[in-house]
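Bit of a strange request maybe. I'm writing a small parser for structure token strings and I need a real example to test against, not something I typed by hand. Could someone generate the tokens for this chain?
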Amino acid sequence: MADSHDNLKMIRKAVNFFNEKQVSAVLHAGDLISPFNVKGFTELEAPLHLVFGNNEGDRITIKEWFAKQGANVCGDFGTLDIEGLHIALLHGINEEEIEALAASGCFDLIVRGHTHQAGSYMTGNTRVINPGEAAGVLTGKATVAVVDTVTKETEIIEL
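Reply from user aminoacidic:
Good idea to test on real output. This should exercise your parser:
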């Protein structure tokens, strides 16, 4: 998920969806915005990994509050190994950076946000995923993505 932009209602809806699907992990590709959004994730059953976006306000408090809840706060860029996949997690402000990471072949998945446009594509053996915006404020659609960790197939889900 990405770009939740202080929308606690949609964060909670996403958390409920992830819990129903019994996902193994939730990755947030930035733009949570405020520390109070930790409240929306309190019921999440899966581990949470997150990075900062370009609109985070108080990064120190966000990091502190989410870490207290057990989240892995990666800063601006995270590398994760989940179920045999090597994953890059970032907000994705710079398209050239996304393209270079994908072309490097170093990652199985690249999870990014920023554009609010949901989509998924392959570059070589690397799947690049933008789950769209969980907030639903720019496109009018609140979306998240679910990835099959065996096939790397991705489904964009409208909340």
